[in-house]
Design brief:
The protein has 21 helices and 13 strands. With 523 residues, the protein is of the alpha/beta class. It folds into 3 domains: 256 residues, Rossmann fold (3-Layer(aba) Sandwich); 177 residues, Rossmann fold (3-Layer(aba) Sandwich), CATH 3.40.50; 29 residues, no CATH class. A 6-stranded mixed sheet has the order 1-2-13-12-10-11, sandwiched between helices. Strand 1 and strand 2 form a beta hairpin.
Length: 523
C-alpha cells in the first residue's frame, strides 16, 4: 500500500483556508490576545519537559480547525500509520522509512520484506555498546599498546551533520575522548585535523553506507595514507572502523570484518544519527547517554503517533508552517536556540528540512504550483540579536521564528542564565507586540529628545505582529535533545504528506555530483 496522492490545493479545507486568510491576514497579535484572555493557555501544549507555546502566531481557533481539516482531508493519520509500520513510503527508492524503529522502546516486531528488523537492530546496538565501552575504558588499545585519546568521524551529509550536532549539543556530558569531524573534501580541512593527531592514539570512524561517497572516501584514503606512513598497514585493524553495507570495499580498505558496523537501507542518511551512524556520539558521551537520546526520541514518536492532531506538537508546528508558507507566502523560517550548545542545530535542520521537502514534483509525478519546502536558517541567541534580528523586527518580510530555550542552565551560573532568558522572552514579546507611534513619541519625550521626535519617530516604530513559536524545555539533557530532534523530524514528515511530495529521496543532489565527476575526469 502506497501513500495517498492528494493535491492539497484542490481540497475543500485549502479553499476555506484561502477565504479565512482574507479575514485574518491583517489581525494584529495584540488584538488577538485582547480578544481572548486565555489565548496563551489555549494555544500551548505541555509534553514531558516541554512547553510548546504557539499563541504568538497570526491565527485563531478557526485557523487551527481548518488546518486540521486539511490534515484529515489528505488522510495524514493513514500516512503516519504507514510511516511507523514499515510501508515503503519512500516509493521512488522502494524503501521503508524506519528511523523510528531504531529508537522504539517496544519489543513488538516491525517487518520489512517479511523480516522482523528489531533483532538485528538490538544486535548492532549491543556491538556498539561493547565497542564504546572498550574504547572509553582504555581496554581497546592502539598498535603501540596505548589507549585511544582521539576519535575522528569521517563522513558527510547525514553521516556528519547529525553526529556532529549531537556531540556538540551534549558536550556537557562528554568524556575524556577528543572528538573531531572530517567532512569537506577540501584538503585544507582534512590536513588541519591531521595536524592535531597522534596515530598511536587515534581511532577513525568511517561512515558511508555505500563506501563510495566521494568526499568521505577521498578523505579516508588521505588519512589512511598518512596513518600507514606513520605506522603500518597491519595497524589499520586497531585504528579504523566503518559503518557501511559494502563489506567488500571496506575489506579492501584494510578494515577487519569485526570492525564493521551494519546500517540498513531503510535508514535515510539525514535521519541516521539514531543508528550505528551515531557510533561517534556513543564514543563521545557513552552508550548510556546515547540510549537516553534514543529514549527521548521514542517518547516524541509515541506522542506523535497517538495524540489527536489538536494536541499533537509536530502536527501543529507543521500545519502552522504550512499556514505561513502557502497562505502568507513567507519563504523562510528562522530557528533561534538560546543555548551555545545548540550552535550547530540549525545547520543540522537545514539538511533535514531542505533536502527532504525541497521538491517541485508531487507524488503523482505532476509539477507543483504551490510552495513547498521553507528555507530554514538561524543562529543562537543572543548572537542573533546582534546579527539578523533587525530584518525580522523592521524588515519587509514575514519570517516565522522558533525560539528554543531552557529553564535551567547546565552550569550553575545563574546571573548569565537570567540575562539570557530575559533576552529570550524579550525578543518574543517585542516581535509580537511591537512599539506604536504613540509609545515611541512618549519614549523620546521622556528621554529629552523633543527636538528629534519628528526626525526619529518613523525609524523607531516597531509594527510587531511578527509570528513565533516558543519551545521551552526544562533542561538540555540527552533525553530532551532526542525529543527535540524527533519533533522536527515529524514536522518535516507532516509537511511532506500535506504537500503531496516524497520527503525521503534527494535526487536533487545528484546532477552536480555527476558533472563534478566528469569535470574531474577531464582535468
Amino acid at each position: 500500500m502506497s501513500l495517498k496522492k492528494i493535491n492539497p490545493s484542490k481540497t475543500i479545507a485549502w479553499k476555506k483556508l484561502k477565504q479565512h486568510f482574507l479575514t485574518i491576514e491583517k489581525s494584529h497579535l495584540k488584538k488577538l490576545f485582547n480578544e481572548d484572555i486565555n489565548r496563551k493557555n489555549k494555544f500551548s501544549i505541555l509534553f514531558n519537559d516541554f512547553l510548546v507555546d504557539y499563541s504568538n502566531n497570526r491565527l485563531n481557533q478557526e485557523t487551527i480547525d481548518l488546518l486540521i481539516d486539511l490534515a484529515n482531508e489528505v488522510d495524514l493519520q493513514d500516512a503516519i500509520n504507514k510511516y511507523f509500520e514499515g510501508t515503503k513510503i519512500n516509493e521512488t527508492e522502494n524503501r521503508a522509512v524506519l528511523h523510528t524503529a531504531l529508537r522504539t522502546q517496544s519489543n513488538a516486531p516491525i517487518y520489512v520484506d517479511g523480516i522482523d528488523i528489531i533483532p538485528d537492530v538490538k544486535k548492532a546496538f549491543l556491538k556498539m555498546e561493547k565497542f564504546s565501552n572498550e574504547v572509553i575504558s582504555g581496554k581497546w588499545k592502539g598498535y603501540t599498546d596505548k589507549k585511544i585519546t582521539d576519535i575522528v568521524n569521517i563522513g558527510i551529509g547525514g553521516s556528519d551533520l547529525g553526529p556532529n550536532m549531537v556531540v556538540d549539543a551534549l558536550k556537557f556530558y562528554k568524556n575524556h575522548l577528543n572528538i573531531h569531524f572530517v567532512s569537506n573534501i577540501d584538503g585544507d580541512h582534512v590536513q588541519e585535523i591531521i595536524n592535531k593527531l597522534n596515530p598511536e592514539t587515534t581511532l577513525f570512524v568511517i561512515v558511508s553506507k555505500s563506501f563510495t561517497t566521494q568526499e568521505t572516501i577521498t578523505n579516508a584514503h588521505t588519512i589512511r595514507k598518512w596513518f600507514v606512513e606513520k605506522a603500518n598497514k597491519k595497524a589499520i585493524e586497531k585504528h579504523f572502523v566503518a559503518v557501511s553495507t559494502n563489506i567488500e570495499k571496506v575489506a579492501d580498505f584494510g578494515i577487519h570484518k569485526n570492525n564493521i558496523f551494519p546500517i540498513w537501507n531503510w535508514v535515510g542518511g539525514r535521519f541516521s544519527l539514531w543508528s550505528t551512524v551515531g557510533l561517534t556520539i556513543s564514543l563521545a558521551v557513552g552508550f548510556t547517554n546515547f540510549k537516553q537520546l534514543l529514549e527521548g526520541a521514542s517518547e516524541m514518536d509515541v506522542h506523535f503517533k497517538n495524540t489527536s492532531f489538536d494536541k499533537n506538537i509536530p502536527v501543529l508546528l507543521a500545519l502552522i508552517s504550512i499556514w505561513y508558507t502557502n497562505f502568507f507566502e513567507s519563504e523562510t523560517e528562522v530557528v533561534i536556540p538560546y543555548s551555545q550548545y545548540l550552535n550547530t542545530f540549525t545547520t543540522y535542520l537545514q539538511q533535514a528540512v531542505m533536502e527532504s521537502n525541497g521538491k517541485s514534483v508531487d507524488r503523482n509525478g505532476d509539477k507543483i504550483d504551490y510552495q513547498t519546502g521553507a528555507i530554514v536558517w538561524g543562529s543562537i541567541g543572543t548572537n542573533a540579536q546582534h546579527a539578523f534580528m533587525q530584518l525580522i523586527h523592521q524588515g519587509t518580510k514575514i519570517i516565522p521564528a522558533d525560539f528554543i530555550g531552557f529553564k535551567e542552565p547546565l552550569y550553575d551560573i545563574q546571573e548569565h542564565h537570567k540575562k539570557l532568558m530575559a533576552n529570550f522572552y524579550g525578543q518574543i514579546q517585542a516581535l509580537a507586540e511591537g512599539k506604536t507611534k504613540e509609545e515611541v513619541h512618549l519614549d523620546l519625550k521622556f528621554h529629552g529628545n523633543m527636538n528629534k521626535i519628528e526626525k526619529l519617530l518613523p525609524y523607531k516604530i516597531f509594527e510587531g505582529n511578527k509570528p513565533s513559536n516558543t519551545i521551552l524545555i526544562n533542561k538540555l539533557t540527552p533525553r530532551n535533545l532526542g525529543s527535540l530532534i524527533a519533533m522536527y523530524e515529524h514536522k518535516i514528515f507532516v509537511q511532506g504528506i500535506i504537500w503531496n511530495i516524497y520527503s525521503f529521496d534527494q535526487f536533487g543532489v545528484e546532477l552536480g555530483k555527476e558533472l563534478a565527476h566528469n569535470i574531474y575526469a577531464k582535468s
